[in-house]
Amino acid sequence: MDALRSLQTGEGIERRYVIENADRSVGARLSGAIAMEFGASAPPGFARMIFTGEAGQSFGAFLTGGVEFVLVGEANDYVGKGMGGGRIVVRPPINDAGDPHLLGNTILYGATGGELFCAGRAGERFAVRNSGASSVVEGVGEHAAEYMTGGTIIVLGDVGHNLGAGMTGGEVFVYDRGIGVPAMVNPELVDVHRLGSDHPLLMEQGVRLRELIERHAAYTGSAVAQAILDDWHAALHRFWRVAPRADVARIENQREGTVAVRG
Questions:
Q1: pTM score
Q2: Which domains does the chain have, with CATH numbers?
Q3: N or C, which terminus of the chain has less Cβ within 10 Å?
């Protein structure tokens, strides 16, 4: 609650903490206090909290606007659970050996807004029931985007099986490193297609995709993201977009209309 007064008065504040696995639901009290005073609106001030260590379950749960949590280390399950705003940034420590696994399972469960950028991999059931948060992560396990109804997820690495099961909204972009993304997708409600087309809507998606990856690189210092940006034209053709069939059909119908007009 160190930040509450600054948030109320319109000031900016930055605090640093060491965090341990026993520290759970860090940020929930602060977000609750902000919601009690400002409702769904962001507070006039801004708080940036920098944590070093290993966070326990539900780090950044119910995070709200005006707050940024930066974790240098790793976190357990349920990071960003129910978050409605704000930003979570997770990056590995300087002495990390590479290809870090930084987040546990069920990240962004039930999130309605906000952003999460992680310069490492996450476990299973990433973004389950997400309805509005945006995120960039560098690998996820099985059942990602399960029952997702909104938001944008970008995976700059491998995904597990059953991607998009029960997904009825939002979109997932996956950078294909050769695993064959279509084989990982649950086809019951979603379709998957390549980006890089000259279709206007697909080009628009590419612009939005690049903007989020640029933000990811800026916030996390990710070498993976920077390598993709450095060779963007080639990288764009390696992305797949996973979205509900109705959304994919809308794009295809508009593509056909554009082709007919040109013809």
A1: 0.91
A2: 77-262 (2.160.20.60)
A3: C
